[in-house]
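Q: My collaborator sent me two sequences in one message, no labels, and asked for predicted structures for both. Can we handle them in order? The first one she listed is below.
A: Yes, handling them in the order given. First sequence, followed by its structure tokens:
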Amino acid sequence: MASPTSKKILVVEDEHDILQLIKLYLEKEGFRTVSAKTGTEGLQQVKQEKPDLVVLDLMLPEIDGLEVCKRLRSAPETAMLPIIMLTAKAEESDTVVGLELGADDYVTKPFSPKTLVARIKALFRRLERKPDDSSAHYRYGDLVMDLARHEVTVKKIEVPLTAKEFGLLEHLLRNPGRVLTRDILLNTVWGYDYYGTTRTVDVHIRRLKQKLPSLNEAIISVKSLGYKLKELDRSA
């Protein structure tokens, strides 16, 4: 049974059976759920219900999931709202577009409800993790990451990041100069044994660079392996 303090999840899915199955599994785990069957209704529910996370189907009536995701990410009040996208299309291009628009994760239909619940829990764990006082801040030039506030600023101006973008940046800042493989980043940042495409990491790194242009040259791609954050020259 859900407690009054449990997280609220909005499920936007037009297939009735899938919607009810997702809600059943989420509520068994103590989550509160609200639902919508169209993109328009989903956007309305976000405003009215203020969910902690959105499970968003790609193929929706009226407004598709990609457009819903785009609108949520472009509005300041929902720019950091966690979004997990559901897609019936297995092609890489569909998942890449969703990730490019700011989805934190995706699940391809048909899927196991247990897998979806595991990914939701992993995302919440990442958001709620309490950092040690000794590592509450990271600095990289004009960039400051405050783990306690879950905040990134550049020249004291906050830059909104999604949960996965924040997690990737944190891991890079923790390990300057080290090559981090895509598999390591997936398993560390996504918080579970990830069997999807490693292209997920590439898309999120690209989004990080777009939001933080000062890191364009600092985040280095290591061919066939992954990425590393260039160490700052302390002697300069």
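Q: And the one she listed second?
A: Here it is, processed independently of the first:
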Amino acid sequence: MDTNIRKTPDPLPFAGWRALSPAAAAHEVRDRIEALDPALRAAALAWMPGAVHLAGELAAAPASAPLRGLPYLLKDLFDATGAPTHAGSSFLANLRPVTKESRIVTDLRARGAALAGKTHMVEFAAGLTGENRAYGDCPHPRLAGRLSGGSSSGSAALVSAGVAPFAIGTDTGGSVRVPAAFCGLYGYRGVPGEPRIADAFPLSQTCDTAGWFAANSGDMGELLDALLGPAPAPGREPRGVFLRAADLLPGAPVDAACAAAAERLARPAPPDVRDALLASWREAVDAYVTVVMGEAHRTHARWLESHRADYDPAIWQRFSDAGRTTEGQFATARAIFVRVRAGFTEFFRGHDFLVLPCAPMPALAKAGCTPEARRAILTFTTPASLAGLPCLTVPVALGEGLTAGLQILAREPNSPVFRWALRQAAP
């Protein structure tokens, strides 16, 4: 365990931000950014407006707006007026000027929230660990020597560091769930194809989703209500089961802690249910990589040669290699997507939710960010990604500042399971 814990301000809950005047809230954001470790600030913050502009945005919110008084941060895959969109790269902003505002920015303004900054990320959202060659690897805000996780690295790190009360991220193969787990946050992953993700710069049109982070369960509940609407009233106590980390990866370091936390939400999956799910998930990682990288190649094909030196070499290689994928390989991968979805359809006939860890390990040091670690994490995240399921992440304390996370998978984006789970997980 790493005992080198950084001192950062505690996150201020929604009520605390609402108690500030617009000018005071704008200056609070600025003061908290200036107090960050310089390496974290450089690696996490992509752009911010002036304090006067932010104060004006906060003051302009309708009095009845559900998120009035709340500044927020935006992953730099989405477009915002007056700000470039880099998508974690050194060159995209020069090739793709911002011409309109993303739907999620418009929606948040209508609900009273004010954009306080854009956040750096893994280049083109193609990673899970928070590494970035152009802007620096994103440090864990509280644990020296560890990384925040990605690809929504800056969004998670800055909420954990208390800079703003919530932040927007995206999740294709775990990019909300993993940094939420590593940074001790609550996270929500939506579903593919919804309007709030449709105009983000894409990694994979099949698997991309929008999501968000909050530092506590009450604030996450408010975000769900404000952005999804009130959940349908449940007719009964939701029925769910959990899988242990060791069910997916024997020897996973988070197994015992995550199992103990999951018992507050569900019972262990019976062997027949567990085995049926695991059988349907066979080759899910390979299918995910085939489809997602294939779609990324189609987006980037026009730039791969002319801008080769500008890409992170590992990401360039993955995108380029995907250009050699055959139609037969895509067909095989798509069939695995169908099998995973069919497995969940059968599971949800008798259950309302499934719980499993977000990742098999806590936040990684740079030396631990290996291809093997990436594949191990994808083993936990790709089932929900292939099935297109919404997920709520709740944090799990491991001791000495380290955290893990549980992902709660349900059928519908606004499932009452999520509010129920937040009540069960609340301290």
